[in-house]
Amino acid sequence: AFRRVKGKLSLLFPTGADGRIIIIHKSLIDWLLRKVDDVEENSSGIFEYFVSRDDLNKSHGELYEICRKAFDCVTKVDKPQNSKNTCTNILSCNKPKSDQIFYYSAKEFVDYAWKHSIVHACESGDNGQLDAARNDQLLNFYWQATKIEKVGVVELIRDGQRFFKLRPNDRPVRLILYAQQMSAPAVGKDHREYSSQLSGGRLSMIFETKPFPEIVKIVEDAETYSLNRGDAGEERIGADSTSRSWWKPVTRNLTGAGHPCIKILSGHSAGVTAVKLTKEGDRICSGSNNGSIKFWDVESGKCNLTMIGHDGSVYAVDISDDGKVVFSGGNDKTVRSWDAQTGVLRLTMEGHTHWVRAVRTAPDGKKVCSGSNDKTVRLWDTSTGTELNCFTGHTGWVTSVDMTSDGSIIVTGSEDKTVRVWNVANKKCRLIKGHTDGVNAVCLSANEKSIFSGSEDETVKMWNVSTGELILSFEGQSGGVESVCVTSDGKWMISG
Asked: How far apart, in Å, are the Cα atoms of 95 and each of 14, 105, 387, 481?
């Protein structure tokens, strides 16, 4: 049975203060002590114990109910003089009885409940428990604020994400999740900023067709929120609003939830010139005019790695498909590769005679191509830093590059108003004309049969890779197109 449930053990068996695993759910013991009539015999004549999905759902459901009782216990300790009281409301919080074979302390279980209660509600599959988790916890400001103090804003965000996967049409939950994600950088530094963030406009609902009562209530609670401490140090929520000082915005001047921007990553000390998302979608790489490259965690919004080495602005970044290597180009005329786990500089590739404006790596990370203001495109061996090829033909700066998955074709755009398709093996070039101003961006479609190019002429054009023929022209931008990309299913093209 332990082999069957080992993936859930961290949820079902919390660890006590002494480091011992505590069995807190008697039905687990019942599973392990089943009678012979309740188990199956395999071909070797050995009885196998098993845990069904229904068993796990039931276990999660019962654990969620115990977590709710734990929260009830906390809210009853509402006066400083009573803060040393022990809650007797959840199973065996008191001294274990002589016939009990498992026990845990009230504090240990309350700490467990703060972290795992929503997990149990979501895993139980019970709609009644999901409703309770939504109304009493996820849309309860006081619960949110205390959870942030107990286990951090990232855990609160994860709770919202788990719930939202099960109920993707719940707009109020989505809005509070947006607000928490946008507030994470400030709240991660000081949990007391949460109330200020929400009352400062994160939940203004200016992008909604109608206000949601649940959100209105959260904002009202945020505006009167304060945190007080009892004699023994227990937290008490919802206390008198004058018990501590806090920052209260006079106007709602923060970006509201529901805005297309759901998170702001701040840390660069100069303009950001390039961004790239890992294939897994969990990290973002950015390059800046201050010469630094940063890696950001998408979920928390925190910078977890900074790479410094370029002598001047970084204009381009790319990441190998396995996420292990970062490539960059800058106005120091170099292409560099970095270890994405440690930030250590691996190689510096030199050969360009002017700024490097674009870089693109093959999926396996063995080759990288670069485009430069010296009007050339160069292909490099990433294991040695050796220049493999230099492609000439553009009469203006090379502003953008892309490469097929097998590395056999390179596509480039230039200020000379052209798109070029290069055959790596024989260095032959197909010239594509049609734009009336400089080309700032090129991108291959997911099936690599089409090229999208964005230009200063305020259009995006779609071309056939094999023939160079124009397929479509997209118009409507009110300025030059600086970037283009295509979704993996090929249904959407995005330009900026």
From this structure: 18, 8, 73, 70
Q: How far apart are CA 80 and CA 84, in angstroms?
A: 8
CA angle 374, 332, 329 (to 5 degrees): 75
Q: How far apart are CA 158 and CA 218, in angstroms?
A: 19
Record the pTM: 0.57
Q: Which two tokens stand for residue 410?
A: 């390179």
User: pLDDT tens-digit profile of 254-303?
Assistant: 666 666 666 778 889 999 999 999 988 889 999 999 999 999 998 778 89
Q: Is 29 exposed, middle or buried (0-12, 13-18, 19+ CB in 10 A)?
A: exposed
CA nearest to 129, candidates 162, 177, 105? 162
Cβ(358)–Cβ(375) below 8 Å: no
Candidates 438, 365, 425; CA nearest to 398 is 438
Token look-up 């590769």 returns 337
Q: C-alpha angle with apex 115: 111 to 117, nearest 5 degrees?
A: 100
Q: Which tens digit of pLDDT belongs to each residue from 41-84?
A: 545 444 444 556 677 788 889 889 988 887 776 554 333 333 33
* 424, 360 contact by CB (below 8 A): no
Q: Read off the tokens for 220.
A: 């009202």
